[in-house]
Amino acid sequence: MKIATYNVNGVNGRLPVLLRWLDESAPDVVCLQELKAPQEKFPEQAISDAGYNAIWHGQKSWNGVAILAKGLDINETTRGLPGDPEDTHSRYIEAEINGLTIGCLYLPNGNPAPGPKFDYKLKWFERFTLHAAGLLASKKPVILTGDYNVMPTELDVYKPERWVEDALFRPETRAAFKKLIDQGWTDALRKQYPDEVIYTFWDYFRNAYGRNAGLRIDHFLLSAQVEDRLAAAGVDKQVRGWEKTSDHAPVWIELKDK
Question: CB 3.0 to 4.6 Å from 105: which of 57, 146, 169, 214, for a disulfide?
Answer without folding.
Answer: 146
